[in-house]
Amino acid sequence: GRGGGASARRERLRTLCAAVRAGAWAEAEQMLESTRWSVNEYRASLQAASQVGDWRGARRLLTHMQAEGGHPPDAAAAAHAIGACHRAKRPKEVLELLQSLEEAGVTPELRSYNMGISASGRVGDWRTAIELLRSMGLNDVPPSVVSYNAALSALGRGGRWQQALELLEEMDRKRGVEADGARRRAIRPRN
After folding, report:
1. Count of beta carbons in the 10 Å neighbourhood of residue 87
2. 180 near 144, Cβ under 8 Å?
3. For residue 153, how many C-alpha atoms fall within 13 Å in the half-sphere facing its CB?
4. Which of 79, 91, 109, 156 could serve as 119's disulfide partner, Cβ 3.0–4.6 Å?
5. Going along 2-57, which residue ranges are E strands?
6. Sequence-separated (6 or more) residues with CB below 8 Å from residue 54
7. Model-level pTM?
8. Would you write out the chain's pLDDT as a tens digit for each of its 191 residues?
């Protein structure tokens, strides 16, 4: 009866997620086409792509979610796609996803911004890290300590000591945001 249908659906979702994790896109595409998936099921498949850092697959799933599933991507679904880009060290793709959310009128989650700033810093792209930090304020998403520390790390890796010191001063002016001592030491210019 009803329980068997739900059980079979859960099994199809597990199979879809396994195909996504394995990069078996022919099988995943076939499953995507054969079933009308819910928003939560799309999120689960996006999470699977995120877990393995399959940023292309995550973007593919987001596109399918909207075009075929009739579900515009929301902040939670996009966060999983952004997580895949973060794991794959693709900061430009993170920025593109964040911009597409903004264009769709969806406010990205704090964690999405933080992953973008972190991914940018890991590949030495301090400009994108700062661009993301600034866009948070424009979207009424207050940067957290994690946001600032990731931006400071990106500036430090890029040798942008003056900008890092300016960012520390900005943090000092904001209530509730304080860089930890390790970050302050990490960006201090060395003689």
Report:
1. 18
2. no
3. 18
4. 91
5. none
6. 20, 21, 23, 84, 88
7. 0.79
8. 444 588 999 999 999 999 999 999 999 999 999 999 999 999 999 999 999 999 999 999 999 999 988 898 899 999 999 999 989 988 889 888 988 888 888 889 999 999 999 988 888 899 999 999 998 988 889 999 999 999 999 999 999 999 999 999 988 887 656 555 545 555 555 44
